[in-house]
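EI: anyone free to look at a 367-residue chain?
SC: sure, send it
EI:
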Amino acid sequence: MEITNVTEYEAIAKEKLPKMVYDYYASGAEDQWTLKENRNAFARILFRPRILIDVSKIDMTTTVLGFKISMPIMVAPTAMQKMAHPEGEYATARAASAAGTIMTLSSWATSSVEEVASTGPGIRFFQLYVYKNRKVVEQLVRRAEKAGFKAIALTVDTPRLGRRESDIKNRFTLPPNLTLKNFEGLDLGKMDEANDSGLASYVAGQIDRTLSWKDVQWLQTITSMPILVKGVLTGEDARIAIQAGAAGIIVSNHGARQLDYVPATISALEEVVKATQGRVPVFLDGGVRRGTDVFKALALGASGIFIGRPVVFSLAAEGETGVRKVLQMLRDEFELTMALSGCRSLSEITRNHIITEWETPRHLPRL
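SC: here you go
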């Protein structure tokens, strides 16, 4: 069967992967309300396309923290990619580089920062979890910087791991042939078997629950890399993030894997964008499966989006080729959406190109 959209990879991944692995990638927290809402909320945003505009040339290029990329579609950090495919993060890194976009490597990758850097050129960010042992954090950040990573995406929504019931049922743990490669030499690379989720036990033992805004400032003293704060859902926190020196904000609910019944990220986006008043770029992850979704996020003020699950599902299905295809399909769909909406560059995508279900016609511009 020919694959014609991003979503179709999920069923193939489900067929190919062991149940424990597929469930780990696919599931959300508790009732999984937010998991469904991350998708459903996009469907409540409609287009107001403008017509009879010359769209023979479409420019999707943009810059993120000063780095030029081919499109505002980037790769989110997803953990333990070698569970999906033997080449894991290597394949993802090559695919992102070939697409001319940014890959974010997870702290909990099954390939190290050095190994990913060895795949060749590419703009890469490093997602950071702050461990109780700050020496470990310092060492990791320095290694990422030395390996040529360009920014830190600091995950701030995980003082404790969300309750993911399929991981509890499956007694999730990292397969014995794999390690969390960045921590291998520090005796933190293995996950013990647990009587619930092995990852939840690992997080409880290693990740720092005392993490606070002062640590965002501390991070800036140990690295010159810009810091993106990942996991902001409110205007209040967006303002504090800027005061704390964040170079950018990622509106994220951790793929609906942490606190259930938070809004979809696309629903929280505009509040965060308004609070930043253009002082720092705002990005979005969560629920993006179509080029139309990318356009909607940009219309609501995002500077770009990140995709997570589509990467691991396509990686499981077809390795590097699959990830390349996902990035290409989203690019092609986004380009088509721009053309059919009458936008030739990202700067032409405005709030007036969409209507949200919660608006009444009086919100619309006067003709």
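EI: The CA atoms of residues 274 and 339 lie 27 Å apart.
SC: 👍
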